[in-house]
Hints:
Helix content: over 70%
Number of strands: 0
Number of domains: 1
Number of helices: 2
Strand content: under 5%
Shape: elongated
Order of helices and strands: HH
Structural class: mainly alpha
Distance between the termini: 42 Å
Oligomer: single chain
Amino acid sequence: xPWKDNTISLYRNHALSEQFHSxxxxxxxxxxxxxxxxxxxxxxxxxxxxxY
Length: 52
């Protein structure tokens, strides 16, 4: 069943993505962003990414 192999592959890739996201936010202390506005969050993420 090719769809089953594809589903498992996508799930593994999702888990890897979540791991990178977790490390990124924890290492850079970005668990709580300073604002509820999308533009402000995007700016903070870009600046932290640049600094990292």
